[in-house]
């Protein structure tokens, strides 16, 4: 938890004003709540120590700082992720129904999109987000990244094509999603193999991220029979006896949180196609569940003063 600041109000105000934007930038860059919050803390320290009298546009200065800090973090994180145990999934984040600042940004924070963004290089990811998500001009992005504008345009074109080729296109009707989520939860809770299988698309794939910390499938699971049997097998284990699930808005979409007592032990997100679950993602790594614990505010707390 970030403490209340002791800095003078004029130092704090610009950072507080743009904090949601800064967190949104860092989280989409890194796919990690913990890393995004670390980036904001580092950015605050740089802002507090900067010659603020020479900063004409605090918002631009702060976005540039956060983007470059995130670029450095993402570059080093790639090597760590290569040795990750089992499938790697982004850290889930509780979101309001309108997803942070703008409803149209919902798709850009979805788990499916964050997975696609992982396939970009760090530079491509930064350019894509600044251009396609936050609406910066090529000239502004060039200034943020200290690159030639022509180079930024080429990178943006390459990243856009890459994302469009892999970007998921799934059903987004909120009422249908709620109905299917409730039915899926009931089928899993009832232990009905056929009922679970009927809700899964023929080409369904399930990923389970335990990070080597808890039991999870080390490889993606394919097909309704395999996925349904694995899900029910997990729920039949003694460790799941006291678990219960609730519907929750996760990364801009309705999903499921699994609890033991008041502690979240897993987050489930999925994609829908033709009324069936096509991609199922289970985040059970305890180190990656801070963003879905009750009381987490998605980076809205005030920063700590240096």
Task: Give a description of the structure.
With 306 residues, this protein is an alpha+beta fold. Helix content is 47%, strand content 15%. It contains 11 helices and 6 strands. The protein has helices at 9-17, 19-30, 33-49, 58-82, 111-117, 122-133, 138-145, 149-166, 174-190, 193-198, 224-235, and strands spanning 200-209, 221-222, 243-250, 253-260, 263-273, 276-283. Strands 2-1-6-5-4-3 form a 6-stranded mixed sheet. Strand 3 (243-250) and strand 4 (253-260) form a beta hairpin. Helix 3 crosses helix 4, helix 6 packs across helix 8 and helix 7 (138-145) crosses helix 8 (149-166). The two termini are 15 Å apart. 37% of the residues are buried. Residues 1-6 and 299-306 have low confidence and may be disordered.
Report low-confidence residues grouped into runs of 5 or more.
Answer: 1-6, 299-306
End-to-end CA span: 15 Å
Main sheet: which strands, in order across? 2-1-6-5-4-3
Tell me the Rg in angstroms. Answer: 20 Å
Number of helices: 11
Gross geometry: elongated
Beta-strand level of the residues, as a percent range? 15-25%
**Succession of helices and strands:** HHHHHHHHHHEEHEEEE
The secondary structure category is: alpha+beta
- Strands, total number: 6
Average residue-wise pLDDT: 87
Largest sheet: 6 strands, mixed
Helix content percent band: 40-55%
């Amino acid at each position: 938890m970030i403490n209340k600041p002791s800095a003078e109000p004029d130092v704090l105000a610009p950072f507080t004003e743009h904090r949601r934007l800064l967190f949104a930038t860092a989280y989409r860059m890194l796919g990690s709540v913990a890393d995004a919050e670390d980036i904001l803390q580092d950015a605050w320290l740089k802002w507090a120590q900067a010659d603020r009298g020479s900063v004409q546009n605090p918002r631009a200065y702060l976005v540039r700082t956060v983007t470059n800090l995130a670029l450095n973090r993402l570059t080093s994180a790639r090597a760590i992720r290569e040795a990750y145990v089992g499938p790697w999934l982004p850290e889930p984040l509780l979101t309001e129904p309108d997803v942070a600042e703008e409803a149209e940004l919902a798709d850009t924070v979805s788990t499916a999109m964050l997975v696609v963004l992982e396939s970009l290089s760090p530079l491509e990811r930064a350019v894509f987000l600044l251009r396609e998500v936050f609406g910066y001009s090529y000239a502004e992005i060039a200034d943020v990244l200290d690159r030639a504008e022509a180079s930024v345009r080429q990178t943006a074109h390459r990243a856009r094509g890459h994302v469009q080729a892999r970007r998921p296109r799934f059903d987004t009707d909120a009422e249908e999603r709620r109905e299917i989520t409730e039915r899926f939860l009931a089928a899993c809770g009832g232990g009905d193999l056929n009922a679970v299988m009927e809700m899964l698309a023929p080409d369904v794939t399930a990923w389970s991220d335990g990070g080597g910390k808890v039991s999870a499938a080390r490889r993606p699971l394919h097909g309704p029979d395999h996925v349904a049997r694995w899900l029910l097998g997990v729920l039949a284990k003694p460790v799941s006896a006291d678990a219960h699930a609730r519907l929750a808005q996760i990364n801009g979409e309705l999903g499921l949180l699994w609890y033991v007592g008041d502690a979240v032990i897993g987050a489930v997100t999925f994609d829908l196609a033709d009324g069936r679950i096509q991609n199922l993602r289970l985040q059970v790594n305890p180190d990656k569940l801070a963003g879905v614990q009750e009381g987490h505010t998605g980076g809205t707390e005030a920063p700590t003063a240096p």
